[in-house]
């Protein structure tokens, strides 16, 4: 196998077309087998429910070349289950977990020349997508669905691994409501949040930090990532809320934090607590952890990091999770799923 001719060390998060993606169709009550497709265009009814009424959900996960040369995907079973929850919540046909695991293995195998080499800092991002495809103009769930999965090689979200970010608490735009769809991975949540992210960026911050929409008192999450704070007595504190997306990275970090001897608290986190944390971070598949440099809340600002010097706790958590993903630290919970390369 010859690797694709890419500048692996300098990849960003831009979409790069690879050789193949997979498509599965739900029709007459059942899912088809995989269709291997070279084109990265799809044909869709102009009346598809995905386009008009937001009947779509997606996932994001990564495959890594490990130190020993094998390829593994990080916790794909969790993504499969979360995608089933997302689908159910907006009345779409869920894509079965077994098929999901086959699909991610197969799409990685088919595009093996795009898997970044161990040590480059890059990885192969896997994007499963589920769309309601029936042409219906009335508002109702589709009866036909398309599940597709593609891959694209990506660099570390920030070059050099850990890049501290400045957050702005925005209160006049909500991403999700308490009984809405904030806890599932649907495109509509992102559409709702675009203005807030843009506002934060226009004002010189990296991302928005949302509060709960009802009370504007408790922390929800950052735009595309969960939030955690580290207390001065070394507790890992992360919000519990019905309107945040259960991040698999966060779930993994909680386990690692416990293993490091920390106490983990998942509970409503009053925004006033940000002034007492010693460190804070945003977490998700893309960057693993983005250490928080500062948070601005109304006319107050708390700064955790001087000169972009990352705190010890964020650093240790990051190194540990990355080490497991890359096969340099023992994977004692079986989080890495090896891709059979035949
Ligand atoms: C995907 C996502 C995350 C991160 O989840 P991971 O499973 O860790 O990648 C966090 N918040 C939102 C809103 C998301 O869509």
Descriptive report:
The structure is a single chain. With 342 residues, the protein is α+β, with helices and mostly antiparallel strands. The protein has 2 domains: 8-154, 2-Layer Sandwich (D-amino Acid Aminotransferase, Chain A, domain 1), CATH 3.30.470; 165-326, D-amino Acid Aminotransferase, subunit A, domain 2 (D-amino Acid Aminotransferase, Chain A, domain 2), CATH 3.20.10.10. It has 6 helices and 18 strands. It has helices spanning 49-53, 76-89, 97-110, 187-202, 248-259, 312-326, and strands at 21-27, 30-31, 35-37, 56-58, 61-65, 71-74, 123-132, 145-154, 165-170, 207-211, 219-222, 226-230, 235-239, 263-267, 279-284, 288-297, 300-303, 336-338. The strands form 2 sheets. Strands 1, 2, 3, 4, 5, 6, 7, 8 and 18 form a 9-stranded antiparallel sheet that branches. Strand 10 (207-211) and strand 11 form a beta hairpin. Helix 2 crosses helix 3 and helix 5 (248-259) packs across helix 6 (312-326). The protein is globular and about 55 Å long. The two termini are 12 Å apart. The model has no long low-confidence stretch (mean pLDDT 96). The structure holds pyridoxal-5'-phosphate (PLP). Pyridoxal-5'-phosphate is lined by residues 60, 185, 221, 224-226, 245, 247-250, 284-285.
